[in-house]
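Attaching the record inline, Q. Sequence:
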Amino acid sequence: MQIGCHVSISGSIDKAVDNAVERECSAFQIFTRNPRGWHAKDLSKEDIANFKSKLRESKIDRLATCAHMPYLPNLATPKEDGFEKSVKTLVDEVERCSILGIPYLVTHLGSHLGTGEEDGIKRLVKGLTKAGQTENDVMILLENTACQKNSVGSDFKQLGKIFNQLKPAKKFGVCFDTCHAFVAGYDLRTEKKVKEALNEFDKYVGIKNLKIIHLNDAKGDIGCNLDRHYHLGLGGIGEKGISAIIKFANKKKIPIILETPIDNERDDFGNIKKAKELA
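Structure, as predicted:
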């Protein structure tokens, strides 16, 4: 079982490995930079060496690590300057992952800002394709969305339409977020419903392209479009559905990343413990 959570890089990027080990992770996700700004501090040779060294010593499989794009980029935006900045950030992040030896970079698909799904998807595909031309082995993972207003890629059929336009194919994969799928209308509350949803995902996107699972319960109910992650088993999906997804991931050897809250109810340690119980 490869399971972990999103961990902080506060202090220096190698601290992420310390945080993952402390939480008994066998997988983890990071931001390689401040996720709330456009500027990225250069990775020093010392930081890179320390990150790689600690990762080797931790015995966490490098192939069970991923990075996530920062929040500001919008690859579906009609604003020309915003689109160019977003694509540049994506290309930069791919390069940063390559330098660190991180194999996967998860990206949100963006908002068309009211200009229509078709135009938004054209821009998204254009931006992703440009980033896919980088000469390294980092794979860009498309994350399904929660079906918020003006978003693209929440529907598996549409996600597959986007994914299948991307070249070269070896540079792209998918990250499946359980909270996003549930609030977008896919029932994940029972083993039977999970199987049905994953069969539909396989039909349009392909399970073979699924490289990371973001395992999150949902604060809201099915189809509410509210992107609010919640503690495993305590939200709208519940224990039966979360358990079925974990068992599927383990069977397929897909790393699981938790992006659950930290509050008085439960923290990272508690949610990882719960996931292991539900396995």
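The chain has nine helices and ten strands. The mean pLDDT is 97.

More tomorrow.
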